[in-house]
Amino acid sequence: MSWDEKSFLEKLEGTHHFPENYTFKFIVKPEYQSRVESLVPDADIKLKPSSGNKYVSVTLTRKMESSQDVVEVYKEANKIEGIIAL
After folding, report:
1. Ranges assigned E (strand) in 10-75
2. Among 81, 82, 32, 19, residue whose Cα is nearest residue 58
3. pLDDT for 57-74, tens place per residue?
4. What are the tens digits of pLDDT across the range 3-48?
5. Over 19-31, what HEC string results?
6. Helices (H) and strands (E) in the chain, counts
7. Which long-range contacts link 4-8 to residues 24+ away (Cβ below 8 Å)?
8. What values do phi and psi take at 33, rounded to 5?
């Protein structure tokens, strides 16, 4: 995942009013699903496997206190092999 953290923070702050619910969406291989789920403890989780079951879409929704908290989740997600953030 390649991104400009400062620019992302500015966009988050311009479009969200924290604290509020924030939805994260990731696509990973099934063997990394539990790691993705652990990124946001106590989140509402929705899973959707791909048609060939090679990947799983993981949607995590939880009240986040700040834009920085959101960025920290993405930083941790970036450590997961092959993850795609939507």
Report:
1. 20-28, 44-49, 56-64
2. 32
3. 999 999 999 999 999 999
4. 688 999 999 999 999 999 999 999 999 999 999 999 999 999 999 9
5. CEEEEEEEEECHH
6. 3, 4
7. 5/71, 8/71, 8/74
8. -55, -45
